[in-house]
Amino acid sequence: MTEVGPTAAASGSLWERDDEVAAVARAVDTLCADRSSSGGLLMFRGEAGLGKTALLAETRRIAEERGCTVWSARGGETLRSVPFNVVRQLLQPALVSLLPEEAREYLGDWYDIAGPALGIADPGGRQADPQGVCDGLVAAVRRLAKREWPLVLLIDDAHWADQETLQWLAAFAERLHDLSVLVVVARRPGEVSGESARHLDAVAAAAGRPETTLSALTPDATAGLTRATVGEHADAPFCREVWAVTGGNPYETVELLAKVQDSELEPTEPSAGELRALNRSARGGGLVARLEGLGIDATRFAWAAAILGTGISVDLVAQLATMGHDDAVRCAELLRSARILTAPDPANTRPGGDLEFVHPLIATAVYNSIPDALRTAMHGIAAQIVTDSGLGAAAASRHLLQVHPDDDAELVEQLREAAREHLAVGAPDAARRCLERALKEPPRPEVHARVLYELGCAGLLTAPATTIGHLRTALAMPGLDGPARVDAVFRLSQALLHNDQLEQAVRTVEAEAARHEEGPARMRLRAVQYMWEGIYAGEAATPGRSQRLADLARTCTGRDNSERALLILRGFDAMTHGENAEEVVELCDRALINGRLAPGLGWTDTQWGVELLMMLGSSYAYADRLDRAENLFAEALRTYTTAGWSGGHLALANAFLGLAFRRQGRLKDAEAVLRESLRLAERVGRGLPLYWSATCGLVDTLLARGHVEEAWTTAETYGFAPPYPSTIVLPDTRSVRGRLLLAVGRTEDGVNELEAAEKAAASRGGHNPVLAPWTVDLALATEDPARAGRLAADARRQAERFGTDTAIGEALRCAAALETGQRKVRLAAQAVTYLEASPCQYEHAAARIEYGLAARSTSELNRGLTLARSCGADGLAMQARQGLAALEG
């Protein structure tokens, strides 16, 4: 038990906290030992009043005593709807002290991404990617931490932190192992649910140690605190009653003892009966009664302060409470004397704030004491004051959310503007709340559909099921016409796609296209329909689709983006069906302007979606134009990184760049970017097409490298097994899964998987033997020589139809593997000839080694070995070495 300390009010909550204080001291000492020391995280959990804030104050004292820089922030019960509120508190004082050019220098490329969320830079013109903003905030703190070492971050009342801050905190906590920063978090148990609870759990898990749960004071500690406060003459019955009344809650104990001193109550047994009445006056209804006893002006001042919640300045409160400056100053002094308000800690002063509540429990009690109708009205006035002060619609939105619906067209516009501001800084959930509130007003008929449309756009990625309802309702109402209506239909189809309602996505776009006359809108809708059909349905769902698409593309010259999209879609369709590769490339080239993406058709343009450009790059990749594919996907990676789009878009960019590297034979590079893609995809969520692309590509690359066990482990870890998604995944899932099963010795299962790929291809009316190489693998795996011969012949026919050196060379490799003697040697030599001209170096290396083995040629084996090593194909290299050893032996 802590026996001695500073004044009771300052130290009461630290009684019986020796273990926690010692843990803090050890963590601070570790931090200060060396710049290279790893970061640490402490998490204290306890009910209200158990001393969490006091522990953070003691942490600050210990840290500053040892020369640390300390930044702190606090969540607020009425401020949870304000995005980035807590992280702004935490970082803004440090950033505001920097000149703009210094802040830009420290944040580097992240300045334009994280700066708007921190309030130090104007947002860009487009919607920010939430994951990219989160990553930018992590990078900002990492860079500032290196400048401010040793740095301690304190976050109080984390259960009331906004969701955006908690997402950042969870991401930052995961990276503390290589950053010398100490983070100390205090929270109440419970209080949160959903995403916020998940983020807090992730923070606790990153601590690497159990959360420290604070307990109430024991009777002995309460007695010690009582005597330290009111005098050693406090007798045992009085001290026991203090403990019984407060339940050992440190905050309530300190407040009760302050009342004992104020009332000059004698701390002896005869006076113990008055403690319960005193305690009631310190909280809840008693606190409200005590507040009312200070007079109507003081009560109005306290109410206004509770409405504002943060940045409580006397002048701002005076405006909200409609009182003069002198009266406001007098009320502030009354409330300070009554221990309701206090001057903020100078070390933790928020910008613009002269006052803060003594404890969150008091703030909550005062806020809840405001009559409902008056509280709503005061929020409306507060919103106007915040707007008039130039802080913007987003800053006023937390007050607007509380205003009673009253058919106010101006309020609807304010909420729409606030939503746009939230989206611009990467806070779609905050935007969604504003637009949902706008619908309750309700909007005027002429803008109602627009509000629903904007709400659908805000929730597209986070709540596709809800988005579907909003957009369908918007489209059924008047007021959404022209390009906005077409865009709403496109976004509705995207939402249906994300909600795994692929057929409805196609039919929705098809039905809307039928409503339009020939022109740009109809052309765009038809292109979107073909895009979704190409990715999801295929010939089995829409017979004759390929022919209709070919007929339509034949009329396109690439004069606008709708026509360019149709050319890309036709090229992709021709590639997947194994039509002539030169025609595929010609179609794709016509969709470009001087070899570049057209304006409005770039990687961050939202009119078409990323799928279209991935189809373009994939068409080049499988048509042996790997330089063009790599350039496209590398451009995607640069564009998304620069724009701060580090969610699903960046995951896809890495996955498809990995595909280009895999096709080139740069297997080590492919593995690296595919692992990064999978890491990013894990953050977005399993089961999505991008997750399958990353996993399938990585398994395929590991098999090519000869790392069979690792490929199997990866497949098991990330669920690479049926049922497969209804989308087309590149490379082909069944072909890769079948090859994996064959590699681990599960021949029957592998053959079954490849036969399933065969059936899927038949239902689509043909396939590309390079894109889905099940024909070759099945020919080599089957035990029926006649069937193997038919399959090899089919592979040769399909390859010659497609016409690339890679396709023909691979078919010849298959044919050679089924032959013996001189015919085997001749076919293997032909395979080398084609694959030497191919950009696919892995396949070239395999063909060289197979030819060397067939012809018993050490020179060919050595050339194959060199190629295999340059590709990172360890399995092929071992095969070549074994062949050389056998020949030399």
Total strands: the figure is 7
Span between termini = 81 Å
What structural category characterises the helix and strand content?
mainly alpha
Low-confidence stretches: 1-10
Number of helices: 45
Using the alpha-carbon principal axes, give the shape. elongated
Describe the structure.
- This protein is mainly alpha-helical and 889 residues long.
- It is built from 45 helices and seven strands.
- The strands form two sheets. It has a five-stranded parallel beta sheet, with helices on both faces. Strands 6-7 form a two-stranded antiparallel sheet.
- Helix 8 (163-173) links the parallel strand 3 and strand 4 (181-187).
- The protein is elongated and about 115 Å long.
Question: Could you name the key traits of this structure?
Answer:
single chain, 889 residues, mainly alpha, five-stranded parallel β-sheet, two-stranded antiparallel ribbon, 45 helices, 7 strands, disordered N terminus
Write the layout of secondary structure elements.
Layout: H1 8-11, H2 18-33, E1 40-45, H3 52-65, E2 69-74, H4 85-96, H5 100-107, H6 111-118, H7 130-148, E3 151-156, H8 163-173, E4 181-187, H9 194-206, E5 212-213, H10 219-230, H11 236-246, H12 250-263, H13 275-280, H14 284-293, H15 296-308, H16 314-321, H17 325-337, E6 341-342, E7 356-357, H18 360-369, H19 372-388, H20 393-400, H21 409-424, H22 428-440, H23 445-458, H24 464-476, H25 482-498, H26 502-514, H27 520-537, H28 545-553, H29 561-576, H30 581-590, H31 610-622, H32 626-643, H33 648-664, H34 667-684, H35 689-705, H36 708-717, H37 733-743, H38 747-764, H39 774-781, H40 785-802, H41 805-817, H42 821-836, H43 841-855, H44 858-871, H45 874-888
Parallel strand pairs: 1-4, 1-5, 2-3, 3-4
Antiparallel strand pairs: 6-7
Helix pairs in contact: 2-3, 5-6, 6-7, 7-8, 8-9, 10-11, 10-12, 14-18, 15-16, 15-17, 15-18, 15-19, 16-17, 16-19, 19-20, 20-21, 21-22, 22-23, 23-24, 24-25, 25-26, 25-27, 26-27, 27-29, 28-29, 29-30, 29-31, 30-31, 31-32, 31-33, 32-33, 33-34, 33-35, 34-35, 35-36, 35-37, 37-38, 38-39, 39-40, 39-41, ...
